[in-house]
Design the sequence.
């Protein structure tokens, strides 16, 4: 009796495995499309940049500076940035010191500091600020996801 039960189970399992399901009998074609990106990936010489939509490196037009975050030439860099060699760069360098808990090294500083009273460290911008952005909370002087 035990042998018959095992034999029947094996036959049922094999039969189920060999019968194609609806998903297996249909043909699925994937059509890959390539979306053309207007981002320029050329490596340019110093002082030359390749803006979006361009196919060659260019010096900034007179009175303009290249914004690498947006891939465009613009007349003025965003707040906290300056034009250096035709490119918008951070005004203050990033501090890479490893700090003790509750202390942080903001942009432009050369030592670890506790946040000033009422402020919290924003690691995305490397600055102390009043409170944290929406969706964040101040924990141990540092803005973290809430």
Sequence:
């Amino acid at each position: 009796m035990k042998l018959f039960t095992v034999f029947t189970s094996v036959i049922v399992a094999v039969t189920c495995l060999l019968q194609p399901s609806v998903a297996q009998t249909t043909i699925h074609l994937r059509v890959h499309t390539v979306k053309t990106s207007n981002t320029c990936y050329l490596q340019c010489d110093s002082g030359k940049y390749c803006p979006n939509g361009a196919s060659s490196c260019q010096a900034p037009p007179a009175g303009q500076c290249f914004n690498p975050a947006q891939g465009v030439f613009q007349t003025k860099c965003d707040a906290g940035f300056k034009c250096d060699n035709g490119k918008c760069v951070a005004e203050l360098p990033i501090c890479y010191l490893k700090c003790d808990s509750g202390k942080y090294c903001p942009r432009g500083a050369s030592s670890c500091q506790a946040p000033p009273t009422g402020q919290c460290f924003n690691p995305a911008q490397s600055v102390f600020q009043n409170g944290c952005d929406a969706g964040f909370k101040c924990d141990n002087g540092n803005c973290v996801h809430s």
Notes: The mean pLDDT is 84. DSSP finds two helices and eight strands in the chain. The radius of gyration is 30 Å. The beta strands are 65-67, 72-74, 81-84, 87-90, 119-122, 127-130, 136-139, 142-145.
